[in-house]
TrEMBL record:
Alphabetized SUPFAM superfamilies for the sequence: Phosphoenolpyruvate/pyruvate domain, PK beta-barrel domain-like, PK C-terminal domain-like
Name of the protein described by the UniProt record: Pyruvate kinase
Reaction catalyzed: pyruvate + ATP = phosphoenolpyruvate + ADP + H(+)
Family the UniProt entry places it in: Belongs to the pyruvate kinase family.
EC number in record: 2.7.1.40
Functional pathway: Carbohydrate degradation; glycolysis; pyruvate from D-glyceraldehyde 3-phosphate: step 5/5
The keyword Transmembrane helix is annotated on this UniProt entry: no
Cofactors named for this entry: K(+)
Length: 527
């Protein structure tokens, strides 16, 4: 069955499915991004999230003020210190998100087949037939028959707190709509999404820039999630803005594809961005349901071949209120892994959900099971064919290291790197074993002070499938001048042994530079 996307042994024994899985030090090779909020911001809960498998903490600035998020971040740092588990920080921008403002905080009930007016006048009170917006250009963007969707933060599209509207009439700045389903909108803020309509607002808003230049710069965020990325120029503009903010020039930009505009310009966005987030919530509204899976598979494949992380959202929505995912959700998580996702984003499930730790744990277990039947051999051949010949020096070394590790059944690949590029290239070929990325800090100066770089690169590995970083002692160079200088290798091996991923008599593949040469070597550990 080597040509199948699944790697299953013949004959397939159905009873083997019931056998308990062997425990691993790493919950899964696929990474989990957890959104921190009201139900997941204490040191205790964050610590348990880290233990359960969260490797990136997402801070969503579409709600909450910087002071609130700063308190949460301080708790994250305390949890990292107590658990001794690395965790990266992702800042998620608001972008050109349209919102309905309910200053009363009282729930608003909307009845099917009645009319509701959307108005930019925020001084008016939200009622069952009038909803104020934070945007004055809606009447110019829509026409009779267009579809509008309103829901609570991270709406699912099927709950009773979301409503579909159809534009009936445009009168000045007001838009009158027919309500297509009965719903109750709770809370003070709801997202408004206009299907397949261009909204004339900048991707990086003034509010976003203020948050990035203050909170983001103060905390040296590792990732910027650029909401509603529609063109490659959006990414270039964001990168130019980050380049003026000191260390934030090292921050990676993940383009969030949320509508058909982003989908149409996907290839050019992928070339500019450091990674892609497939925001299936909003995108699922813009696309016909039968096309959603096709976009996911095509987009992830393109990311895989480019060697850039692909991140999938909205997989276990029902776990916001339930302890177990639905059958469809469990299968969806597994399919995301089999499609080639690097990471899974959990939004409402960890932000305001009742079971944030359990959700991370269950998603991690599903990912780990899916990884066992992932056909790496088939993927490897596709990746090599896509790269073509002649390969670059680094690409050749990376693919050779993965091939060697699989042939000798190595327990781990250890890669020494200063930029992180070599380790990411190895991970691109999806080895079946973990890649321990030993990041060697480099000493740099701006003529005023000396600083070590490397912490950014180590944390940014935490969103790449199969890549597990370790920040080395800066006294050990990434490029060994002597083949006998094994001190840094011993540190890495001891690190692997301490965490239970390397045992006596295991084979380990090493990828490092010796002088001007890149070397792949295989060692077998003694007692």
């Amino acid at each position: 069955m080597q040509s199948s996307p699944l790697l299953l042994e013949e004959p397939i024994r159905m009873s083997s499915i019931l056998e308990p899985s062997k425990p691993n030090f790493f919950p899964a090779m696929t990474k989990i991004v957890g959104t921190l909020g009201p139900k997941s911001r204490s040191v205790d809960v964050i610590s348990r999230c880290l233990e359960a498998g969260m490797s990136v903490a997402r801070f969503d600035f579409s709600w909450g003020d910087p002071e609130y998020h700063q308190e949460t971040l301080e708790n994250l740092r305390a949890a990292i210190k107590s658990t001794k588990k690395l965790c990266a920080v992702m800042l998620d921008t608001v972008g050109p998100e349209l919102q309905v403002v309910n200053k009363t905080d009282h729930p608003i009930s909307l009845e099917a087949d009645t009319l509701v007016v959307l108005t930019p006048d925020q001084n008016k009170q939200a009622t069952s037939n009038l909803l104020p917006l934070n945007f004055s250009g809606l009447s110019k963007a829509v026409k009779k028959g267009d579809t509008i969707f309103i829901g609570q933060y991270l709406f699912t599209g099927s709950e009773t707190t979301s409503v579909w509207l159809e534009v009936n009439e445009v009168d000045g700045e007001d838009v009158t709509c027919v309500i297509k389903n009965s719903a109750t909108l709770p809370g003070s803020l709801y997202t408004l999404h206009v299907s397949q309509i261009h909204i004339d607002l900048p991707t990086l808003t003034d509010k976003d820039k203020e948050v990035i230049s203050t909170w983001g710069a103060q905390n040296n965020v590792d990732f910027l999630s650029l909401s509603y990325t529609r063109h490659a120029e959006d990414v270039r503009h964001a990168r130019e803005f980050l380049s003026k903010l000191g260390d934030l020039k090292q921050t990676q930009i993940f383009a969030k594809i949320e509508n058909t505009e982003g989908l149409t310009h996907f290839d050019e966005i992928l070339r500019e961005a450091d990674g892609i987030i497939l925001s299936r919530g909003n995108l699922g509204i813009d696309l016909p349901p039968e096309k959603v899976f096709l976009f996911q598979k095509a987009a992830i494949y393109k990311c895989n071949m480019a060697g850039k992380p692909a991140v999938v959202t909205r997989v276990v929505d029902t776990m916001t209120d339930n302890l177990r995912p639905t059958r469809a959700e469990a299968t969806d998580v597994a399919n995301a892994v089999l499609d080639g996702s690097d990471a899974i984003v959990l939004g409402a499930e960890t932000l305001r959900g009742l079971y944030p730790v359990e959700t991370i744990s269950i998603v991690g277990k599903i990912c780990a099971e899916a990884e066992k039947v992932y056909n790496q051999d088939l993927y490897f051949k596709k990746a090599v064919k896509h790269v073509g010949e002649p390969m670059t020096h680094l690409e050749s070394i990376a693919s050779s290291a993965v091939r060697a590790a699989i042939k000798v059944k190595a327990s781990v690949i250890i890669c020494f790197t200063s930029s992180g590029r070599a380790a990411r290239l190895i991970a691109k070929y999806r080895p079946t074993m973990p890649v321990l990325s030993v990041v060697i800090p480099q000493l740099k100066t701006n003529q005023l002070r000396w600083t070590f770089t490397g912490a950014f690169k180590a944390r940014q590995s935490l969103i790449v499938r199969g890549l597990f970083p370790m920040l080395a002692d800066p006294r050990h160079p990434a490029e060994s001048t002597s083949a006998t200088n094994e001190s840094i290798l011993k540190v890495a091996l001891d690190h692997g042994k301490a965490f239970g991923i390397i045992k006596s008599h295991d084979r380990v593949v090493i990828c490092q530079k010796v002088g001007d040469s890149s070397v792949v070597k295989i060692i077998e550990l003694e007692d």
